[in-house]
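Session log. Operator J.P. requested a structure for one protein chain; no other inputs attached. Running the standard single-chain path with token output.
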Amino acid sequence: MKGQGQLVMTDGLAGMGEMDEEVISVRGLRMRYGPVDVLNGVDITARRGEVIALLGPNGAGKTTTIEILEGFRMRSAGEVRVLGLDPAKGDERWRARLGIVLQSWRDHGKWRVRELLDNLGRYYAPYGTPGRTRPYDAGELVKMVGLEKHAGKKISSLSGGQRRRLDVAIGIVGRPELLFLDEPTAGFDPHSRREFHDLVHRLSDLEDTTILLTTHDLDEAEKLADRILILAGGTIIAKGSADALSRRMAANAEVRWTRDGQRFVHAPADATRFVRELFWQYGDAISDLEVRRASLEDAYMCLVHQFESGQRGAEAREFEEVAG
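Structure written below.
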């Protein structure tokens, strides 16, 4: 997420107007396999430097959506622009501006870490610009992903977590303007996960990289994403910040407190008013007060359940936010 005093690195275009540039613009995206509509009118926008998390159950259409945006799959209908071009017509210069971190990458075990990154980086060198030189220096890159102690090792000797760090390095070696991350922290221990989160913030805040993240880790999405998109049944059923989605589940907030040695739990429609009235009535007799608002996981599970149950009505529509 953006912070004060950030360094904005643009791709040869001056001015703060770039901050509002739409890096991804999708309108009415449809994908049909035979008689089955996998995607049905999907709309997505992502601006420069924004981190977007695309969430959804298995079979919701996430992979199909990402592959269309990456230019690897043709769509059935709809308007799609990524970095100003239709991905179906993207050339090598356009592709060099993308980074992709897959769930797994089939590498050559005999390569050494730094050697592989050096070789991959050469592809990107002709596509650098004054505002964004390409590629990353391999020495800098191995430090960024925490592999500096393993730079000279053969890939076949790396642990699973180290191989995952290498996957990330391969995805960003060309200093992408748009980065696709597919379950990026699978196999990471808690320390590695935190370091990866720091790297994502560095890329978005300092490099102005737009990041589209797909994950089943809702806690990770809540920590990293500026906006959340929930995809179910081939359509976006909700979008907004994690905080906004969670707060709109206010009816599910739980208030817990102790009075006269007895523990109480209540789920009021308006937790703030309830707490105020609780103290007005009992004052200092109230202790150990806790208010637990709905989490992103609560909101996600509720929305998907409503949609899959065919009960998506006014309550679910409250979650929808029109992108600005």
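Operator note: The chain has two domains: 16-240, 245-317.
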